[in-house]
Amino acid sequence: MYDLSNVVDVDAMSSVAPGSSLLVTGAAMTGKDALLTDLLADGVASSNGAVAVTTGGRAEDLVADIEDRTGGLDSAAICGIDCRADSNREELELDGGAYVHRVASPSDMTGIGIGITNCFERLHDAGLDSGRLGLTNLSTMVTYTDRQTVFKFCHVLSSRLDSAGFLGVFTIDSSAHDKQTLQVLKQAFDGLVELRENDGTREARVRGLQPEPSPWVEL
Amino acid sequence: MSDAQPPVVLIVEDEPDVADTYRLWLADDYDVRVAENGDEGLEELNSDVDVVLLDRMMPGLSGDEVLAHIRDEELDCRVAMVTAVEPDFDILEMGFDAYLSKPIKSDQLEDTVTNLLERSEYDSLLQEYYSLVEKQATLEATKSRAELAESEEYEKLTSRIGDLRGELSETLGGIEDDEDFIATIRGLSNQDEN
């Protein structure tokens, strides 16, 4: 079981089954990426591997953010997959031992899949058989492809995470899509983490993991 | 896979003895067709074919060229590449769905064909699942909660989605390893380009 209650302090997050995938939704500027980074860093601190997939920002930046939060504890446990549109396909090892795999575009599903496979292999070789994969963000992928492709990609990836016993965390900008697109994409996930900002405080609520939604809690 | 017709397997192989061995192994369960080279393979390819066993090294049109043709034409079949050399990991991207290194054993060949057919089933289940989820989302976006509660269509849809979710989980066994994972993802992108 994955205990995520250090990051989101609700009962539903205290034991999340291996193989579960969570969708983090919220409008722009509600701190979706910060939450994803916290969840990955919290994993590294509990001896989980981390796979960070970025479609907009640099994977190195996300890797560095995770390292900052863990104090450089175990950089070999951190892998990044950079799928911004302007990158060339390559693999590189960063100072400190983290690994980054680049994919040509957020629409290159096969390339992203191969990157994920390489990261899993690396973590496995490092003796890490549990881990967390975070992907930011699905909105970019929808822009580069369409919601059907993204839905299926998420479903197949969730299946792979399930057989690996990993945890998946995906973010989506709820203000960038119509209600129907969000409703469709939500179906590919086991649980939802909704974020909002309320009078300057960030709050989260978890749905889907338990019969009733959790209360809103401050982050 | 409820068709009464057995699935069609096309063997493209220039060594007659080898082709015949494969044919004998598969003949009980499948409608097996044999092509002796790449050109003949292309002639035999049509929408009936479910799985192609493609020899990579052949005189004339090579296995790689036949594969490129299958993908360009977006033919809805699964391809197992058969070769004498162990592939590099990167060639996963070439577009085949399975890779078999010679010499092949009979159970290995049977398992591969079974897995490829299961994966096709997974893809079509996923396609159906997606289209129902999309319908459900449309209803939820346009109808009130009270209207949904009264709608028989919505109830049926919701229950079918639940069943399909279960069926999809059951066919998951087919994509447990990395090669299957990549091939499934690529299969989805191929479909979506149609």
Task: Report on the architecture of this protein.
The complex is a heterodimer of chains A (219) and B (194). Helices cover 35% and strands 25% of the residues of chain A. Chain A has helices spanning 32-45, 59-70, 109-125, 138-144, 147-164, 179-186; strands spanning 21-26, 49-54, 78-82, 90-93, 99-102, 131-136, 167-173, 191-198, 201-207, 217-218. In chain A, helix 1 (32-45) packs across helix 2 (59-70). Chain A starts with 20 loop residues before the first strand and ends with a strand. Chain B has 7 helices and 5 strands; from the N terminus they run βαβαβαββαααα. Chain B has helices at residues 16-26, 38-44, 63-72, 106-142, 145-150, 152-170, 178-192, and strands at 8-12, 31-35, 49-55, 78-83, 98-101. Chain B has a 5-stranded parallel beta sheet, with helices on both faces. Classes of the chains: A alpha/beta (219), B alpha/beta (194). At the A-B interface, helix 3, helix 5 and helix 6 of A face helix 4 and helix 7 of B.
What keyword list fits this structure?
heterodimer; A: alpha/beta; ten-stranded mixed beta sheet; globular; B: 194 residues; alpha/beta; five-stranded parallel beta sheet; 7 helices; 5 strands
The N- to C-terminal Cα distance of chain A equals 22 Å
Strand content of chain B: 5-15%
- What's the arrangement of strands in the largest beta sheet of chain A? 4-5-3-2-6-7-1-8-9-10
- Broad structural category of chain A: alpha/beta
Shape of chain B: elongated
Poorly predicted ranges of chain B? none
- Tell me the span between the first and last alpha carbons of chain B: 22 Å
Shape of chain A: globular
Helix content bin of chain B: 40-55%
Question: What order do the helices and strands of chain A follow?
Answer: EHEHEEEHEHHEHEEE
What is the radius of gyration of chain B computed over CA atoms, rounded to a whole number of angstroms? 20 Å
